[in-house]
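Quiz preparation item.
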């Protein structure tokens, strides 16, 4: 029996996919089809996939050509698959010509010409609604929003608003956007989604006005230190049928979800301590980041990992001569654990996160909020296990993917985000920082 294997995403199933499977089947007696998994696509930075994994598998199954369907879940899986299923020939599209020649030592490799004049990319462009994204800013640094957004199908960065017309025009010129505005209402009328990266004092006003015009909103955090206003904003978004997201890309990374599951799932026993540090040196020098914006991320991470039911909290800060915060140490006390966050404006501290448990520990080095890599040490056998993701960009593309998925869905999706209880706990600590800084 001659066994054939082929792989593909098979998104928006079309005639080209059908032809590839048909010809692959003709190459042997038994055809195995590997359909790429959703986490694997995301890790490769491929965020344009529209159909769910279940739909893509069902479409392949409906052709009748596949004798067995498997899921391709990670880079390098092809060799184990070839050996496991005693594959005689790997069939793949000609656009990959030469890329899999290294597998010739394991089986025959055959590249098939693809069906002309049709592709999933073309179908996406024809079927997808393109959402226009606009940016609200005080400066001309885009935080990579312009470069990250095109990595996800269905969104286009269109325009920018700034109260300073010169800033809006300079931003447009730098990033080659369609138009700059200094009238906020006119700006909102030109877009579908607004990304608000203005200073803290103006964020709430911009959010409220955008939601009232039924615009989807992504906003830098924090945007308020008043719990009632936070509840009001969430309710306003719901009443107007739009999506509101806090700009915390970490929460939309699959590997962060895996880390949370391991930290809270007794993999390292009961959590005893969470220590994390963040420093301005880890960010682009041109990107002005206020202290409370930097502090929000480690506070949010602690709430997700250790929980929001802390019994006490403390803020210790060191100020510069001009009164700005130079360094802060934030402490959360729990019934059986302690969590600390160091936040540095200009002190050269070492960034990283360590989660200590009763039976092990988890470590994430350097810019841990991007969570591209972490390791787990088991105290009992001293074994160190490594977990990594092929993280792309600064994480904003994954947040964009999440907001588009929620906008397009008629179902109530469980999107990664900050719960009301977590937000209350975060807001209480941000308020303490504000009180200390005044």
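Solution:
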């Amino acid at each position: 029996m001659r066994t054939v294997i082929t792989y593909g995403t098979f998104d928006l199933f079309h005639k080209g996919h059908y032809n590839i499977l048909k010809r692959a089947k003709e190459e042997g007696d038994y055809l195995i089809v590997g359909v790429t998994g959703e986490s694997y696509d995301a890790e490769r930075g491929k965020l344009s996939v529209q159909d769910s994994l279940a739909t893509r598998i069902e479409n392949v199954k409906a052709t009748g050509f596949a004798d067995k369907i498997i899921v391709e879940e990670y880079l390098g899986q092809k060799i184990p698959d070839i050996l496991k299923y005693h594959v005689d020939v790997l069939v793949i599209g000609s656009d990959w010509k030469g890329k899999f020649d290294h597998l010739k030592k394991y089986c025959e490799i055959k590249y098939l010409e693809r069906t002309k004049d049709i592709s999933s990319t073309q179908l996406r462009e024809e079927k997808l609604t393109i959402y226009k994204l606009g940016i609200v800013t005080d400066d001309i640094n885009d935080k990579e929003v312009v470069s990250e957004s095109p990595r996800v199908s269905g969104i286009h960065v269109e325009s920018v608003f700034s109260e300073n017309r010169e800033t809006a025009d300079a931003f447009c010129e730098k990033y080659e956007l369609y138009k700059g505005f200094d009238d906020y209402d006119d700006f909102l009328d030109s877009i579908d989604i607004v990304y608000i990266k203005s200073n803290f004092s103006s964020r709430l006003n911009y959010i409220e006005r955008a939601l009232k015009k039924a615009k989807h909103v992504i906003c830098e955090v924090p945007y308020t230190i008043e719990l009632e206003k936070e509840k009001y904003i969430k309710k306003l978004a719901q009443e107007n049928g739009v999506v509101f997201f806090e700009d915390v890309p970490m929460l939309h990374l699959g590997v962060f979800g895996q880390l949370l599951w391991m930290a809270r799932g007794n993999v390292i026993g009961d959590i005893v301590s969470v220590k994390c540090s963040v420093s301005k040196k880890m960010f682009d020098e041109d990107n002005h980041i206020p202290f409370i914006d930097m502090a929000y991320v480690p506070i949010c991470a602690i709430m997700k990992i250790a929980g929001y039911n802390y019994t006490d909290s403390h803020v210790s800060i060191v100020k510069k001569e001009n009164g700005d915060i130079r360094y802060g140490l934030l402490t959360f006390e729990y019934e059986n654990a302690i969590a600390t966050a160091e936040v540095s404006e200009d002190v050269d501290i070492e960034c990283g996160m360590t989660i200590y448990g009763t039976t092990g520990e988890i470590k994430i080095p350097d810019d841990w909020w991007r969570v591209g890599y972490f390791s787990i040490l088991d105290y009992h056998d001293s074994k160190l296990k490594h977990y990594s993701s092929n993280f792309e960009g600064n994480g904003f593309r994954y947040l964009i993917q999440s907001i588009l998925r929620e906008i397009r869905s008629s179902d109530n999706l469980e999107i990664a985000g900050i719960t009301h209880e977590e937000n209350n706990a975060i807001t209480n600590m941000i308020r303490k920082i504000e009180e200390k800084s005044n």
